Input
Amino acid sequence: MHDSNPTPSIFNTVPVAPPDAILGLNTQYRSDPSPNKVNLGVGAYRTAEGQPYVLPVVRRVEQALANDPTTTHEYLPQDGLKQFCDLSANLILGPDSPALVDNRSVTVQALSGTGALRVGFTFVARFLSSETAVYIPKPSWSNHKNVVVQSGLPPTREYRYFDYGTGAVDMEGMIEDLKAAPAGSMVLLHGCAHNPTGADPTHEQWEQVLKVVQEGKLVPFFDNAYQGFASGSLQMDAWSVRRFVKAGLDMMVGQSYAKNMGLYGERVGALTVISSEGGNNEGIRSQLKAIIRAMYSNPPKHGAMVAARILGDTEMFAEWMREKLRGALVRIGTPGNWDHIVNQIGMFSFTGLTAAQVEFMKDKYHIYMTSNGRISMAGLTDDTVEYVAEAMKDAVVSLKKGVIHNM
Output
């Protein structure tokens, strides 16, 4: 029997959290009945029918694992599948990396890139300082701010990164802001294929960033979610990370296989902590394992086993639709210069569309993208690229203010 006058729940005062800006688009997209709807918000490759695309090599490996009677569902250690961790370190650092040769790196399996960031920043809060300032680019992936604060660190600070006038990296602003960062601050850097802008520093510009990081005694944390997607080369896309490692810095690197292997839901990632000198790998690994144990105990097995069998095979990467979209925009006479869609790299592209133009396309054409005009190139197919280009042209012509003319 229940009390007729129950005490109000202690949870009644919990406020409703705002919906995630990116994942919320999925909800809107799924509820849209239009047969012409297109989702350009979330970075996930789709078939022409709009279904998740599974790489053929992933299918083959999964089938082989299913047919292998020795495959089990045994727990992995807290730090994950050793083969996967070793191959991940080799992939991002290079097999001849001084960090590996000198035995001054520790790699643990993580819950994709987000998990790598969460474990890494928790490690920073616990063993560097809970007051460590973390600088992220402006703009950056929206979840960076959430992860940093949830890890027990102060709210993120921003450094200028994108020049909205040219569509390229704002090096002058970036260098100026990083020079002003206090010694010991962490600087989050996108190793390649910057999300959301698709604008990356050149090798010469990375050298400028490295110099400021060294002189300012800053600690870099590279977020590498798209290795192989920027240039099409695993080696080229790891250049920035490897250059900083070669400089002998204390640093951290997060990796994700959600995009480049299409293992989105398997949550496959890795975190590598690199020391400027060797000697404390055992301490670092033990504390990372302790953090993981309290957070999620141990990582999932299936995706790590799939990735471990595939790593190093450059033929697994899907082709992008960049040239087709740019060509369609030019062919139909869309006002403005759209070369930046080709020049920007990775899974995402900053179109230069305003929030009003984005809303116009959603309402009239049922095309979904983030309000800042970032589109996921992975959401385009041969069947939708012309439709999207026509919609972009209509939005630009109908709402001309804000369109980028000088890229």
User: Anything to note?
Assistant: The radius of gyration is 22 Å. Confidence is low (pLDDT under 50) at residues 315-327, 402-407.
